[in-house]
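ENTRY TYPE: paired fold submission
RECORD: A
CONTENT: sequence, then structure tokens
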Amino acid sequence: MRYRLLGRTGLYVSELCLGTMTYGGRGFWQAIGSLQQTEVEEQIKAAFEAGINFIDTANVYSLGESERLLGAALKTLGLPRNELVIATKATGIMSELPNGRGQSRYHLFNEVDASLARLQLEHIDLYQLHGFDPLTPLEESLSALNDLVRSGKVRYVGLCNMSAWQIMKALAISEREGFTKFVSVQAYYTIAGRDLEREVLPLIEDQGLGLMVWSPLAGGLLSGKFSREAPGPEGARRTNFDFPVVDKERAFRCVDVMRGIAAQHGVTVAQIALAWLLHRPRVSSVIIGAKTMAQLADNVAATRVELSADDAAALDTVSRLAPEYPGWMLAMQAQYRAKPPQRP
């Protein structure tokens, strides 16, 4: 297991992050996973022993049950707190009360305390806005996050699922007001869905933010269990919950190429999909979520896959984004400055 700095911070996180969306299985979340306490403890213990020091959850996962199971597991296992980086999030619907969702100061302050209680922790290492709230002014949300950092309840702040202009606006407000800045972006990114590279990834590179990748296997579509001809196994996440949105024909073209590369390396298709991300620049950590210990072990093994230059070229060719304006224009104009001028 390798460790990478989270953006421009001095914080090292494991290149794989353990996701906990499969914990609990309350209501809607049952389609994704329903691991209970014994299974959760077994998974966390194995992940920690494999070198994973980064765990990501959210208040909304099974309406707090994921955080509760995680907190109980950490206490039962007695894992050293100073060797763990615990991340959680707030924004989603936690109740049908008027202020039971969003990014108001009221809601964020309430949810931090609720998350800390469920996790049985004194502080959260990375607290993330779980999307964009169109009603709450960014100034209010950012001021609240700044105060939470100053209070000691939160160490770093990050965001999820925002567009480039929203992220840049937030960074500019924090710069202007002297607030704690976002250090990370959690976003959907896979070999079959490289949309992030159009606007958000260039911003991440320019601003030195860390990138945490969610759903690296496109909801299981890149696991190798799915094909054009087969709908997928019963009980698989994609079978029960067809998310995230992906161009399936494009995804299967990628799978076709990955199958050949996986066979050459003697590994699974899923490991090739994860290895591709682990070889991408600016990726701080790839979030893996598993229903079984076998899935967890397979995902962890992806850290040992070394892609050759030919492998990387083949994967890039099959998955490359189609040119879009202004991207193709910017690339063309950049060529004018690619080489330093020479005096004739």
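RECORD: B
CONTENT: sequence, then structure tokens
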Amino acid sequence: MHIAGKVFLVLGLLITLAGIVMTISGGSALSDVGEWDVEGKSQFDGPDGTWQHTGTDWMIIYVSDAVDCEAFSVTYTNETGETGYSEDEPFFNKEECNADGSAGADDDPSGYYSVGEFRGKAGEYTVDGTHEFYTVGIGDVLLEEGGEAVGGFFAALGGATTACCGIFFLILGGVFAVVLKEPKKMQITESGN
């Protein structure tokens, strides 16, 4: 087999394997999207206490799956003693509860569901809740999860492209192996005069 065929076959094999590994790692990163640490991202853990809200993010309130949505409530009282912008618009806006006693969407992290949102301005709040809850900034979650999704997508796409390149190298190596012949040593014989 000609040396060019051997080189292209080895390169094709290595590039294809690298592409497969990249595709698998990108797919793995994509499958992890949606699974994040609610407690680790929480800016305030209830049920009660004093919270200094920076006002830089839209806050989602998460509770454990074990908490019944109908039984959960929380009241935020600002420095002036108000619990909302008006009687009809409290700082905590609770979602409608589902028939199974939960709220939120199917994309909530496992073990938790979103029960509502906090809509207060920056400042200090006295918090009084019925159950343990976690206050998570939606911007933190979107940036991290969006970054993981984009990174996973491009890793998988790059891996598939690399594997495709490797296959072309393998094909080219196979063609070279069949078509190119090993150069034969030329033997020159002198004829006697």
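NOTES ON RECORD B: The first helix runs from residue 3 to 31. The mean pLDDT is 83.
STATUS: closed
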